[in-house]
């Protein structure tokens, strides 16, 4: 018998990192008059000068990061996430060494080396965003080299279609468009006092009236509250059928989340995790019983390689994983997991009144829900099934 020697796929030749401005993966980088920057409650609202607009305190300071990984045969995998110019530095000057010359199928070893080589200054935030971008570009490359969609590499679809809830300012319109629920941004936090709390409840009550008793309504609090305010909000929102309260307090306050989960009315869900990272961060949320649904962002939590570990850990704890936004990078995961029964769709139309591609204008061929659903077959293209819009002005600040 001849023993086959495994030589693997074409080696990785080159890793490149670019910045792009104007929406896309940095979906907060929008023009004036967009719902996503209209007086949304934030932890910075304690300063009146930063209360009206999140761009005023720099929510779009970073911009989009584009990572490209080219194999020796000329095949290119790519991904977009946030992180901008500082992430470009990390990718080109630090992380690229763990990929160039390597077999692209070795994503476990590559991830491990990216994470532990940066651990002394990384672990969360920007560094893990950069790692996530590289990891997603690697999965895209792997899919393209093998001629398979990423969902097939992850074990295959467990259902025929994805169903979505919509995040935006108009759950009533989302209902008409076929979504299963609508999540609104909270507009007032503790600095707005009791008057702001009443306004929050009044907005929820108005929307409940418009959508009827059964449509899911959720509130996204973007880390703006404290346990006391979040508890009072949850109790008052209960009579208006609030399905879940999302990211109510600081992601560092695991103890606060555990308290909030004990405080909310029975049946109301506590969700969080979009600003959490890695299996170790999510282990804290799980073991301290901080929430009912984990919401990792695949572009921020460590990429697909890490999301698989987070998901398995959550499954063993009986928790759902419903990733934050992130378009095709989430869809290819959600379709493969039973504990990920639906997906988020960010309404990036300025008035939340039309379905537009979430990462527009950066991706070509980005699928969008139709009647709140997406057939699994819409994802049946190699890699993540999208191409980079190369007409956009891309800047490569740390070219090698
Ligand atoms: Mg959120």
Automatic annotation (TrEMBL):
Asked if the Swiss-Prot or TrEMBL record annotates the protein with the keyword Transcription regulation, the reply is: no
Which positions bind substrate?
28, 54, 344
Keywords, ordered alphabetically: Lyase, Magnesium, Metal-binding
The positions annotated as site (Increases basicity of active site His) read: 297
Report residues binding Mg(2+).
220, 246, 274
Q: Which cofactor does it need?
A: Mg(2+)
Q: Which reaction does it catalyse?
A: L-rhamnonate = 2-dehydro-3-deoxy-L-rhamnonate + H2O
**A Gene Ontology molecular function term of the record:** magnesium ion binding
Q: Does the UniProt entry include the keyword Acetylation?
A: no
Which Enzyme Commission number(s) are listed? 4.2.1.90
The domain of life is Bacteria
The broad enzyme category this protein falls into is: lyase
**What's an example GO BP annotation here?**
amino acid catabolic process
Q: Where is this site: Transition state stabilizer?
A: 344
Identify its protein family. Answer: Belongs to the mandelate racemase/muconate lactonizing enzyme family. RhamD subfamily.
Record's function text: Catalyzes the dehydration of L-rhamnonate to 2-keto-3-deoxy-L-rhamnonate (KDR).
**Binding partners and assembly:** Homooctamer; tetramer of dimers.
**PANTHER family linked:** ENOLASE SUPERFAMILY, MANDELATE RACEMASE, MITOCHONDRIAL ENOLASE SUPERFAMILY MEMBER 1
Q: Record's NCBIfam families?
A: PRK15440.1
Designated name of the protein: L-rhamnonate dehydratase
**Which gene does this sequence derive from?**
rhmD
